[in-house]
Amino acid sequence: MTLAVSSSGTAGLRIEPRTVRGLLGVALLLAWEALPRAGLIPSLFLPPLSETLTALGSNWRDYGWHLLVSLRAIGISMLIACGLGIGGGLLCGSIASVRRVAQPLASGLYAVPFVILYPLFTAWFGIGPQAKIAFASIYGLLPCLLGTMAGVQTIDRHYVTVARSLKASRWQMISRVLLPAAIPTVLSAFRIGGALVIVGIVVAEMLTSAEGIGYLITRYRTLLDSPRVFAGILVVIALVFAFDGLVQLFVHRTRHWRLSTRSGESDP
């Protein structure tokens, strides 16, 4: 919260966005505790926050073990999705003829709700971890691919021209020019793709799995144990926030990589 002075000379309080977000979060938590306690919302639909935290604390070993199972699947899926997506995006984005074919195709596939295809994954890979890893990998791959290709197109053409004049190889062009110059867009694509990988794993575990945090939520939902259901949801939310925080920290640490990203007229 800071004191700001306008052009007319009047002074006023300006609340920082971070402060607003914090106040909204506190208000949400207070409402979560107060509304069920006051009987305005049945506790079956929304148990008080204190009961949810008590359920989480009393079963932390169970939640911890299933969280580790989910984290292992998320890590493998993220390596596949973001590795192939970013690598493929850099390669396709650097070759204009390939990009003109791949970009509309990937955009069309991205519009398909992949959840409807999950039964096919279970038929192909079974109901073990392979199915959810394959599903989440494809779920997160397309935004990484599309975002990286779009990032390559925003690079200042002067960098590409200079690299070509110096006889840079394709690998040198990608690793020394395209990737550093497109890093802000690549990280944005990684942020979206990684979040979708987490969503994909949790959804797959909720549909057909015998382990993982998504399975735990479904199991307690079947038992109508609302505090434990919401405790699982809290764990998933904490996981997504932790991932987003790590990406933001990485973005902050790679600020010096950022170059001019003005769009050029010619293809790389």
Question: Would you write up a description of this structure?
Answer:
With 268 residues, the chain is mainly α. Helices cover 74% and strands 3% of the residues. The chain is built from eleven helices and two strands, in the order E-E-H-H-H-H-H-H-H-H-H-H-H. The protein has helices spanning 17-37, 49-58, 60-94, 96-110, 118-125, 129-153, 157-165, 170-181, 183-207, 213-222, 226-253; strands spanning 2-5, 11-14. Strands 1-2 form a two-stranded antiparallel ribbon. Helix 3 (60-94) packs across helix 9 (183-207) and helix 5 (118-125) crosses helix 6. The longest helix has 35 residues, at 60-94. Residues 261-268 have low confidence and may be disordered.
Outline of this structure?
By secondary structure, this protein is an all-alpha fold. The chain has helices at 17-37, 49-58, 60-94, 96-110, 118-125, 129-153, 157-165, 170-181, 183-207, 213-222, 226-253; strands spanning 2-5, 11-14. It has a two-stranded antiparallel ribbon with strand order 1-2.
Could you give the topology of this structure?
Blueprint (H helix, E strand, L loop, with lengths): L1 E4 L5 E4 L2 H21 L11 H10 L1 H35 L1 H15 L7 H8 L3 H25 L3 H9 L4 H12 L1 H25 L5 H10 L3 H28 L15
Antiparallel strand pairs: 1-2
Helix pairs in contact: 2-11, 3-6, 3-9, 3-10, 4-6, 5-6, 6-9, 9-10, 9-11, 10-11
